[in-house]
């Protein structure tokens, strides 16, 4: 399954024979890595389009796109948007790289692993981890909103899929924004970034980031105030 990755060669490798040799060996290495990654290692999460894995105790993880048809951006576009967001100081996983299989059936996005869980996991009580000590829901959402405002106003990037599965809470109670597969930065001043043309004459209306933050905050306040630990300030 993970055979046939497209490899970008160094300028020093000029002979075809040597390229072929490297290709075979590199593929073997990729396969070995993927096997290792998928077998005894940590499954961090599943979304509608992707599975995310990490090596045990590793600080990097890989997003494996399993449903490319549902994606708006390919992994390279997602990587480029992440590069801009990261450089702009938004709290997102550090982007590392993207890889495709030659048939483009498999694509991978390598990034920093976030030490935490998605807001959705907390709301659904999916994981056993508890909220960080002294977690403040108001502070968390104020910080999230500040970052999203910066994304919009300074960087001109709209997330367009900011549901609770795409916001993570780290062990210090800080928000991280993930999953930029539906994000966009290219629209004209008079255009609505949440209207996406599909086939000619048709368009799709995507949910507004600010609206989803408000909904998520309401759900979180309701859910977390029910928690009995008593260490949460809502
Ligand atoms: N960098 C990361 N570190 C730790 N966990 C992560 C990271 N990226 C993703 N995850 C986990 O994996 C899950 C799925 O990842 P992601 O949201 O990118 O996939 P998706 O299929 O595009 O999601 P969607 O259902 O929103 O389309 C996330 O909800 C999160 O729990
Ligand atoms: Mg997601």
Write the layout of secondary structure elements.
Elements: H1 16-38, E1 42-46, E2 50-54, E3 60-65, H2 75-87, E4 95-100, E5 107-112, E6 116-118, H3 119-123, H4 137-153, E7 167-170, E8 175-177, E9 195-197, E10 203-205, H5 209-226
Antiparallel strand pairs: 1-2, 2-3, 3-5, 4-5, 6-7, 7-8, 9-10
The structure holds adenosine-5'-triphosphate and magnesium ion (MG).
Adenosine-5'-triphosphate (ATP) binds next to strand 1, strand 2 and strand 3.
CATH architecture of the largest domain: Orthogonal Bundle
* Tally of individual domains: 2
What's the N-to-C terminus distance?
47 Å
Range of helix content: 25-40%
CATH topology of the largest domain: Transferase(Phosphotransferase), domain 1
Poorly predicted ranges: none
Nearest-integer average pLDDT: 86
Give every kind of bound small molecule, once each: adenosine-5'-triphosphate, magnesium ion
SSE succession: HEEEHEEEHHEEEEH
Secondary structure class reads: alpha+beta
Within CATH, the superfamily of the largest domain carries the name Transferase(Phosphotransferase) domain 1
Total strands: 10
Number of helices: 5
Shape: globular
């Amino acid at each position: 399954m993970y055979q046939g990755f497209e490899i970008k060669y160094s300028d020093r490798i000029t002979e075809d024979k040597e390229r072929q040799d490297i290709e075979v060996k590199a593929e073997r290495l990729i396969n070995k890595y993927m096997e290792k990654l998928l077998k005894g290692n940590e499954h961090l999460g599943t979304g509608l389009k992707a599975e995310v894995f990490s090596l045990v105790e590793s600080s990097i993880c890989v997003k494996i796109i399993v449903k490319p048809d549902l994606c708006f951006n390919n992994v390279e576009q997602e990587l480029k948007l992440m590069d801009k967001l990261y450089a702009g100081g938004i709290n997102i996983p550090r982007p590392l790289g993207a890889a495709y299989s030659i048939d483009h059936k498999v694509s991978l996005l390598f990034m920093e692993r976030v030490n935490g869980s998605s807001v959705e996991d907390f709301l659904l009580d999916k994981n056993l981890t508890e909220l960080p000590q002294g977690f403040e829901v108001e502070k968390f959402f104020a910080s999230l909103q500040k970052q999203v405002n910066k994304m919009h106003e300074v960087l001109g990037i709209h997330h367009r899929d900011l549901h609770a599965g795409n916001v993570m809470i780290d062990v210090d109670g800080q928000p991280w924004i993930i999953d930029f597969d539906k994000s966009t930065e290219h629209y004209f001043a008079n255009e609505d970034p949440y209207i996406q043309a599909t086939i000619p004459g048709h368009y799709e209306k995507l949910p507004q980031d600010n609206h989803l933050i408000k909904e998520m905050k309401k759900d979180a306040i309701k859910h977390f105030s029910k928690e009995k630990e008593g260490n949460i300030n809502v």
